[in-house]
Amino acid sequence: MLYPRRRWYPFSPKPVLWFAWLCCRLLGLLFGIRREGLDKLPRGSLFVIAPHVNFLDPIFILATLPRPPHFIADSYFVFKNPFLAWLMWMAGVVPVDRKKKDAYAVRQFLRLLAKGEICAFFPEGSRSINARVSHPMTSAVKLIAKSRAPVAILALEGAYDAWPRWDPAPRLPWGRVKVRLADLYSRGWITQAPRSLNDVYVFKKKINLKAEQRRLRNSLAKAALNETNAVNLLRKNRPEQLTRYLCFCPQCAHPVGLTWEPLRRILQCGHCGLELKVQHDGISRLVQGLPELSHSLDYWFDAMEQALRQKNPQELLLACKLSAIIKILDQEDGEPEPASMRLDQSGLALQINSGQMFQIPIETAAKGSAKGSDVLEIAHDNRMIDLISADGHAIAWLILARKLAGWRDYFSEH
Question: In terms of DSSP bridges, do strands 178-186 and 34-36 run parallel, antiparallel, or are they unpaired?
Fold first, then answer.
């Protein structure tokens, strides 16, 4: 066995866990990651949560907490390759299968909490493309609301600039990241050393799910405030990656989005002719070759969202080349095959070059899950279909599918 699999995934031994934590602490010192208020964290059983804006968020948290935490993470990333699987096991990660209700993973997590450990996770379930907090997952809201343990919210200031979801390359965070205790969301009510799961979690507690979700989202949003304002857009090779962020034209909402013109060093829409000039801390529209007032990333994302909401679904159509992996549920991954895709109101048509063809209803495609920026995972007809984008447009495919399916909030991933 090359690496720990889902059916056999024990907790990492204490020496291994502390070794992984010590390595992250040394990395934190090397890159100048600062900390503020973490000495006020309660001792014993503790939930630590934070907005998820960066792929390196778990490392930033590991590098600053006073003792090793355990994370819960999507099994897709935990078992993506043997090297990553071993690193996650050493760091005490608990894998969870997000394609179904995974009671086993939740109980594993709660057992660690009952042992007095720090249990950390990101309630949104995935990285935010625009550094804004999306709706927390229902399972995460229940886990927090029914917990007897204290819950602390951390703010990862400056983390979004290090590795935003739309940028495929990490940027070294030399002294620019600070992990701060933003709020003690719940002080908990554990009166003695926990001995069982019932001592740290009230399984039958009734909660107002919508109210708890709203409260949690508001608290996380305060911790992630103004993250996009700290992004340096002129870092090496970063301007051309903004086509992943503005995945639809902010003016005409064309699904092909913007393209990067390397000679003129501008973003351009081939459909409506919009031209945008990327600057250090914002983007400005070009009018007759001259830049107007620069606006923030948030401004252009809002413009894109508004344009897409006003767009008639009948006018939206996307056809492109991609790679696809077709596998039977619960079987090992196959090899990517070249394919063609057409996405419109009638559904998602997928033609594999080897001859297979799939007609996926738009409602099914809208229930897919984006894995990073490159893979859209769709469950259809007892198969798991992975659509792989070489240009990082998997999130745009998911947004378009949910727009065409009539979803109200199609910029949220769940």
Answer: parallel
Pick 4 or 112 by higher pLDDT: 112
| pLDDT band, residue 3 (cuts 50/70/90) | very low
**CA neighbor of 77 nearest in space, from 50, 96, 52, 103:** 96
Read off the tokens for 39.
Answer: 């000495």
Query: For residue 127, how far is the Cα from the chain centroid?
Result: 2
188: left (phi over 0), alpha (psi -120 to 50) or beta: left
Helix 14-30 crosses helix 82-90 at what angle (to 10 degrees)? 100
The amino acid at residue 407 is W
Instruction: Give this prediction's pTM.
Output: 0.90
Both tokens assigned to 325: 């992996």
What pLDDT was estimated at residue 1?
Answer: 40
Residue indicated by tokens 């390595």: 23
Report in angstroms the alpha-carbon separations of 205 from 113, 147, 209.
18, 10, 11
What residues have CB less than 8 Å from 84, skipping those under 6 apart?
77, 78
| Residue 208 burial (C-beta neighbours within 10 Å; 0-12, 13-18, 19+) | exposed
The whole-angstrom separation of Cα 319 and Cα 97 is 31
Token digits for 266?
Answer: 């501008």
Contact (Cβ atoms closer than 8 angstroms) between residue 159 and residue 53: yes
pLDDT per position as a tens digit, 358-393: 999 999 999 999 988 899 999 998 899 999 999 889
- Which two three-digit tokens encode residue 364? 């099914």
**pLDDT of the residue at 9:** 61
Q: Which residue has the tokens 């600039």?
A: 161
Query: What token pair was written down for 186?
Result: 């719940």
* 128: helix, strand or coil: coil
Which of these, 336, 368, 333, lies nearest to 352 by C-alpha position? 336
Which residues fall within 8 angstroms of residue 114, CB to CB, at 6 or more apart?
Answer: 45, 194, 195, 196, 197, 199, 200
Q: How many residues make up the chain in this entry? A: 414
End-to-end CA distance of the chain: 34
Looking at residues 75-100, what average pLDDT do you find? 85
pLDDT digits (tens, 9 = 90+) for 163-217: 999 998 898 888 999 999 999 999 887 767 787 888 899 999 999 999 999 999 9
Count CA within 13 A, CB hemisphere, residue 25: 11
